[in-house]
Design a protein that fits this description.
By secondary structure, the protein is an alpha/beta fold. The protein has a domain of 138 residues: P-loop containing nucleotide triphosphate hydrolases (Rossmann fold, 3-Layer(aba) Sandwich). Helices cover 41% and strands 21% of the residues. The chain contains ten helices and eight strands. An eight-stranded mixed beta sheet has the order 3-4-2-5-1-6-7-8, with helices on both faces. Strand 7, helix 8 and strand 8 form a beta-alpha-beta unit. Helix 4 packs across helix 5.
Length: 251
């Protein structure tokens, strides 16, 4: 069964960058096969990992909801949807990326969403690790991708707004039907001390801090891949130091 590591946090905290770096570290440490799932509507995880998006699951759902007749005669609907989802996977060197996107059309998605959840469950089990870059609302985690996460990594900046958002996300996981193994708070691009009371109020275990990394800023501005980040970069080294807790199955 795939070990699911889900990212969450308010916009602009660096969830996608952290997801890309975790994918890179698991790949470089040869811990197992990796599927990176971009479940944020502002999809750029594939680009962050140096790959091009082949298709989004949202577009697949649009097409099927708008024209169910495109399913070949004699082929079960679920088989067709599973084939389409599998062809949307972008293959990298040592990892794959699936971009969820979001359906935009007016059609009914009830059936395809239910089918998609079953398909994603099977797809996840084909990999040793699944890294999910979520939007703050956890929509894909709760409804369409998977209803469990072995590790939930809530990313925040060193601000009251960010930490209040982290607290809300932690509360939301308890309100929704999501099975969480371990929940951690990671402060990203930290420049100043944060009051311990704010961290404690989040209800999350403080995993550690990632400092501002000028090299990451340059890579992001240029639209380059995090695979180009130097091995001795501040962010990568710090994330590697705390990584065992993130993918603790391998301790």
């Amino acid at each position: 069964m795939g070990y699911v590591i889900a990212m969450a946090g308010k916009g602009g905290t660096g969830k996608t960058t952290i997801a890309a770096l975790i994918t890179r570290l698991i790949k470089e440490k040869k811990l197992g096969s990796v599927l990176a799932v971009d479940a944020d509507p502002n999809s750029n995880l594939a680009e962050c990992l140096g790959l091009k998006v082949k298709a989004t699951v949202g577009k697949i759902l649009d097409d099927i909801a708008a024209a169910p007749g495109k399913i070949p005669s004699g082929m079960p609907k679920e088989t067709f949807i599973e084939y389409e989802v599998q062809t949307a996977v972008s293959e990298g060197e040592g990892f794959d990326v699936l971009t969820m996107g979001r359906p935009e059309g007016p059609g009914c998605y009830c059936y395809v969403n239910n089918v998609l959840r079953n398909i994603m469950g099977r797809l996840i089990n084909n990999y040793d690790f699944v890294i999910i870059d979520n939007e703050a609302g956890l929509e894909h985690l709760s409804r369409r991708t998977t209803r469990r996460a072995d590790t939930l990594l809530v990313i925040s900046d060193a601000s009251k707004v960010g930490l209040k958002s982290a607290k809300r996300i932690n509360e939301l996981t308890k309100e929704l039907d999501i099975k969480i193994g371990n929940s951690f708070l990671l402060l990203n691009r930290k420049t100043e001390d944060v009051g311990d009371n704010l961290i404690q109020e989040s209800g999350l275990e403080h995993l550690g801090d990632i400092p501002i990394d000028v090299e990451i800023t340059k890579i992001s501005l240029n639209g380059n891949s995090m695979m180009e980040l130097r091995q001795d970069s501040l962010s990568l080294k710090r994330l590697e130091q705390i990584g065992d807790k993130i993918w603790r199955r391998n301790q």
